[in-house]
Amino acid sequence: MMVMELKKIIIKLFRWFKASAEQGNAKDQNNPGDCYYYGKGVKKDYKEAFRQYKAAAEQGDADAQYKLGNCYYYGKGLKQNYKEAFRWYKAAAEQGYAKAQNNLGNCYYYGEGVRQDYNEAFRWFKAAAELGLPEAQYRLGNCYYYGNGVRQDYNEAFHWYKAAAEQGYANAQYILGNCYKNGEGVKQDYNEAFSWYKSAAEQGDAKAQINLGVCYSEGQGVKQDSNEAFRWFKAAAEQGYAKAQINLGVCYSEGQGVKQDYKEAFRWYKAAAEQGDAEAQYFLGGCYYFGAGVKRDYNEAFRWFKAAAEQRLPEAQYRIGRCYFDGKGVKKDYNEASRWFKAAAEQCDIDAQLHLGLCYYIGEGVKKDYNEAFRWFKAAAEQGYADAQYYLGLCYENGEGVKQNYKEAYYWYLIAYINGYT
């Protein structure tokens, strides 16, 4: 009964607005525009909404000018046209309309409908921010944070992020959490970081949900809780956020906050990998390589390792090297193996450094070179890799790539043994 009465009232209001609009009343031309745009009291019709907004905008109504700009910007009721959007946002912005000032700032910031100009973007964001618009306060914070249109200033960035966050603006709450976590513009405070991530996460912000999950997972600003970590990773993952899908995969793989389930781990790694995330592609390759959650398939493993390796992920580059070295999923090729080992080794991957050292030591895929072998064994050994420490000891014992030194050999053999080399 109440719903029917409300519908009748809306229809009556629409008719009244329409009658007034037809007499040229700018405000009432704007109102039926809203009715047509949102389908209130009348069937949704973007073309008619555009016509009503345009009539009011041409009479100088700032709200209608802003909404007309939106029609042009999003292509509602006509073909998308950033230049026209910019023109109408500017008309409304110059009348002090905060939302239009913010959108005008966006046009300048991204070069939409006008030449990109961070200085102008900053000016319009500031105008709207000072009128209290949270979105503009957030964007002004970004200008200060990245030094776009103004000198970089983390303190000012923090100030404006906080102003927007306190008005409930989720993006700002998430970034404010980052400021507290990293100590940018404010003293590092994990408790505050957690609090702001939680505020944004509860509004559905996926990035905040994953960071909140990390807080629970690592016990930062809150008691460690794997169940809560899983819950928030899942919330973000279900929104399609790749990093959360990876973390959810890890939870299933390791049984953290949920019963261990390799098939579910595989499913979430695959979801993220198909979005092009290198880390997920590497993990998915691992599932195929070891047969975790899916039938073992070296060809598929190689395919996903390669996808990640081509994005310069060192762990994946090492794995591709092993595939070539062992002939798994691809024809054995020591030259290719050493090439990928080198790519990963130069990014400080210790497995790759060890295997590149071995390539030089035995002359597989590369000319035998004890000096190079020693160099790469040493690089991995100094990062605490027991196998590399053993081979470094061997180099010192035999004087291979370095002057013979039994004391150094003994030292590295001992360190290797202490670190578990057998």
Q: Would you kindly provide a written description of the structure presented here, covering whatever features stand out?
A:
α4 runs antiparallel to α5, α11 crosses α12 (206-218) and α18 (314-326) packs antiparallel against α19. This protein has helices spanning 2-21, 26-38, 46-57, 62-74, 82-93, 98-110, 118-129, 134-146, 154-165, 170-182, 190-201, 206-218, 226-237, 242-254, 262-273, 278-290, 298-309, 314-326, 334-345, 350-362, 370-381, 386-398, 406-418. It is elongated, with a radius of gyration of 30 Å. It is an all-alpha fold and 422 residues long. The longest helix has 20 residues, at 2-21. It is built from 23 helices and no strands.
Brief descriptors of the model:
mainly alpha, 23 helices, 422 residues, elongated
